[in-house]
């Protein structure tokens, strides 16, 4: 065994009153986070506990070292105190202070005694306004069961209406041959008194729900006005933070609390935007563009997590010089709140466009004025908490938000240029990423290639390339802001619904939209030229020097077989384009390629109503087609290019005389649903665990795993997956660990054919003495999985599950 000190755990500067009983849970795997410390006041004890790590497989002698388990796994950390002196030695481990406790608490822990050493639970009371500690004479009884071998113990802590500490005192260590006490796995369950701000019985908060999106431009400044914070509000949470999130405040605030916390007795007219921040949270002021680019994964830095920001929908102000946002604010003392402008696409703070909100005039109307960004810049207003008083709870209330318009900002959101420039412009349309990706899903029928790009193309068999090289752009989903059926001229109509579009903002730029693989195309009896069918779609362009083509490429290597230019800036917008597809006896894909030509080329091109009418080889038939040269018939309009659709997709060593059948890859979305590593305590991903009859054990996220404790009166715990819909067979891998007692692990598949139709026993060996790995085959008929832990025999057992990951049948990662 190896030992070292507990300097960070014993740092008295970090000691603060506990908010939740679970804060006292500690298995010493990360002692810096434990809310326990050595008591270092004169006259209480003589020794300190030290941290030890088990480094070998030696078991403790069951009779001499007990009542804890004789087997401790290698790598486990616990604390130890001991000595070889004849004089009696003692050591006290004390909890962080508890302000008060409403119910009887239950302390569960494991300990070992050797050579006459003893352990007792004590309660220490704060006296003289917290300046001194006093050990109460009443000592809670430690219950280790009838047989005090290989067991854990409990002690009941009575309720208190004043501050106190829980202590573990090791004593009677006075054997010259050596005596010691070991402690591990501290867990505490109780209901502490409320330590947060009391807003009064007439106040509550609920989830902030609005129709704000991640990209829709507002058409007028008044759209950003918000005082009810209902579904019509254009403000939303942005970023990621586990400690604070903007909510909707409802009801009436306690007048006494309002005056004590904010310094004013003027009540806000709720509802309002509300952010509550617990104490002990330190925030960094550094925010990078990478942190903000994806608002669903916003992090301030690696050390701390920030609370979320309150952001508006984007707006643009052409021809304006100044913009003003006004609002009312109520907040606790010590908060620093900034109002900033962020660029819509890069999610970067605009230089010099961030101002601290003055809190001294609260709750009078606050006006913040900014210089207007450039005419083409689309920006958002963002409220960002920069600093808080970490010694107390904090809150912010925002209400009566309004964008003020005057002669300098009258053009904000003006949509008149949408008609002048046409609907296909940044003003007339907003974009959002496609949700689909290339998964090699089977193409059974030609109708599977139909796509109207609704639901962000989620159900389409078309997608962007997985990797883009320099000079390539993404296809996105375009949604019209207004005037969906406005007729531009006699031959051109604005499309109805969602479309696919790409922005080619410079010369030598291109974008490629690729279909899923097709085993082959068959001659159509309805086509007089013997071709397989017709690919049709509509296009619209806004720009110059844009060329659009339809290509047929090899499914595996992405090598271009044939291409046909079908226009771009040529022809009328909205015209239906028809492309004849020849008979091909090898696996292929369709590729739609837009590219700029000339030095001044660039603009926007959109497509919609993709259809293929013809005959294809169904992927349902398990047939491998050999690649061979196609007999291209005259009149189909294709010409041979002899190139690859993109160079970095070339696969070395492919022999086209023996192309393998296209293999179906499991759905990446299902992979995201079922994969979980439980890295954040309290976060179970999308898995759930509920109590069942005659058992109270449940899985919970603890110590970077899904963890449960089984005992005689609570023998079963179930970990339940979310509902999923898998497109092909896959494997769910996982790690498991059974300790401190025998337990069996089962996995059950709840299929659409029979509920819980098949269950498999994963582990029957009882304790595993370390982490084990296994997997289960998941079928397309399965819709839910259950991992069931069951106590085998008497006593207790701990069961941990970790690293759930979905792969294909060859154990390749999917997501």
TrEMBL record:
Protein name, per record: MAM domain-containing protein
Organism from which the protein derives: Meloidogyne graminicola
